Amino acid sequence: MEENKILWLxxxxxxxxxxxxxxxxxxxxxxxxxxxxxxxxxFFFHDRISGKNPTSVLIARPNITKEDKSPALxxxxxxxxxxxxxxxxxxxxxxxxxxxxxxVSSSQDVLTLVTYLDFGFTSGRFNGSSLSLFSRNAVxxxxxxxxxxxxxxKFRMATGFARLKTRFTNETAxxxxxxxxxxxxxx
Length: 187
Ligand SMILES: *[C@@H]1O[C@H](CO)[C@@H](O)[C@H](O)[C@H]1NC(C)=O
Ligand SMILES: *[C@@H]1O[C@H](CO)[C@@H](O)[C@H](O)[C@H]1NC(C)=O
Ligand SMILES: *[C@@H]1O[C@H](CO)[C@@H](O)[C@H](O)[C@H]1NC(C)=O
Fold this sequence. Notes:
The chain is mostly beta strands and 187 residues long. It has a single domain (34-186), classed as AOC barrel-like, CATH 2.40.480. Helices cover 9% and strands 47% of the residues. The protein has one helix and nine strands, in the order αβββββββββ. The protein binds 2-acetamido-2-deoxy-beta-D-glucopyranose (3 copies). Residues 1-22 form the signal peptide.
């Protein structure tokens, strides 16, 4: 532990002493992190693109005439997302945050989405913090992996991955319920 403190002190002093060579950045110094943690999260998100209260809405799609293999989400369709995150799979389960962002239908063969989502938490230890997901999401596979590329608050400088599993789809009722198990390394 003492060694860690000395290393931190040395690094801090070095950064203070390091001359600024340019107007918009400091000198680059070796990055040493001694305080990274790993957290695991387990929750569900609910995505509904139709019905009375959709959580994802189509904001743009190409005007294509040729036949498309995924009629619900033709290649090029862009959706805005505000999906509730819950503790359990039931729609009535406690809401712990929302996934906000975009997804785009990104393949001309098998239906695939690329998701740009901020998973923001509004309760518990991570209230006010969020995870940034930017990843291809092979939604036709029951289980798939997506990349966690960053975060805010307690998840600052997060990196990791999440395993997504489609639990059930019922567009007329709950929409699609996806189980998410994330492993995140962060400060
Ligand atoms: C789609 O494209 C066709 C042919 O180019 C055109 O006639 C039609 O008006 C377009 N529809 C929309 C909604 O832009
Ligand atoms: C989450 O944080 C906000 C802002 O600090 C606070 O108003 C709210 O009561 C908190 N919610 C829970 C469930 O802790
Ligand atoms: C979907 O939900 C509706 C309304 O709750 C129900 O009537 C229907 O049977 C469900 N369909 C499936 C396939 O579970």
